[in-house]
Amino acid sequence: MKIVTLGEIMLRLSPEGNGRFVQADCFRIIPGGGEANVAVSLANYGHQSCFVSKLPEHEIGQIAVNALRRYGVDTQYIVRGGARVGLYYAETGASMRPSKVIYDRAHAAIAECDPQEFDFDEIMDGTQWFHWSGITPALSNQAALLTKLACEAAHHHHVTVSCDLNYRKKLWTSEKAISVMSPLMQYVDVCIGNEEDAQLCLGFRPDADVEGGKTDADGYHRIFEQMIRQFGFQYVVSTLRESYSATCNGWKALIFNGKEFYESKRYEINPIIDRVGGGDAFSAGLIHGLLTKKTQGEALEFAVAASALKHTIGGDFNLVSEDEVESLVKGNANGRVQR
């Protein structure tokens, strides 16, 4: 199946292991970014996964393109041009010390693109699914218009649209996010987020104390119903993270299709190797699950298991196969050597 994602791919610069920025003599270069991460996962699951973006023609831009091609992502819709690739610095936390991210992404090629450079009628032709996140319209007014044009074309071509709300306070305010994101929800069939995303992007607040580890699904039912009533989503989905430390999290999710709620099994992930990209792994797993599974419950279990596995893998990309995810869904979590 042809699946299209739209967004920014950046280069992540990280110290080795759990080293701090101020200790580093060198940084590892790790390509990644929300929708690019989703594209890589979907390619791993056997889909025709296409990533849409803009990257400079120089060699640094080529690093990002090559990273996607390495894992089977179709890069034909990436426009080449612009001045720079966005960067972000990531310091991996441990125990009670949290991870830290510093962005250096201003004036990236995708943020300063001309939306007319993209032929979304051609891109969406023959596409079954289109995925974007709230990070993309937060980049700039041009990127917000680009997202709107992509959604309009997807709607015209009867493409299923998913959105990971993915609020980033370093990119915009809640007021700005609500003003931009709310009108775009008319195009969205599957809305994905967490309790903070729903509140800061759309103005909905669940009755749950996630910081205190209280993530009872009942606290989400009311706002899920309200969101479907207001925006007409086919599905509303929320990840539920219990953060005990930087290296130990509880992880589960909830889905609602307008009639039935389903809560996934819970995983305790300890130790976490790298949680960057965990939400993107979830989104990709959900898309694959909704396209291939018989029930929303089966789709959600696949998504949660895929994301749990991502937490054990360094880098942004979730480099697991469909079979590996299915094995975990079936309860094979003992970590024994596979011979």
What would you say this structure looks like, in words?
It is a single chain. With 339 residues, this protein is α/β, with parallel strands linked by helices. It has one domain (2-330): UDP-N-acetylmuramoyl-L-alanine:D-glutamate ligase, CATH 3.40.1190.20. The chain is 35% helix and 22% strand. It has 11 helices and 15 strands. The strands form 3 sheets. Strands 1, 4, 9, 10, 11, 12, 13, 14 and 15 form a 9-stranded mixed beta sheet that branches. Strands 3-2-7-8 form a 4-stranded mixed beta sheet. Strand 7 and strand 8 form a beta hairpin. Helix 6 (174-184) packs across helix 7 (195-202). 48% of the residues are buried. The mean pLDDT is 93. This is 2-dehydro-3-deoxygluconokinase. Pfam families: PfkB. Keywords: Kinase, Transferase.
Beta-strand percentage range = 15-25%
Kindly report the average pLDDT value.
93
What is the strand tally? 15
Please give the oligomerization state of what you see: single chain
Structural class: alpha/beta
| CATH architecture grouping | 3-Layer(aba) Sandwich
CATH class categorisation:
Alpha Beta
**Could you give a short account of the major beta sheet?**
9 strands, mixed
What overall geometry do the principal axes of the alpha carbons give?
globular
Count of separate structural domains: 1
Give the helix proportion (percent range): 25-40%
Give the N-terminus to C-terminus distance in angstroms.
Answer: 32 Å
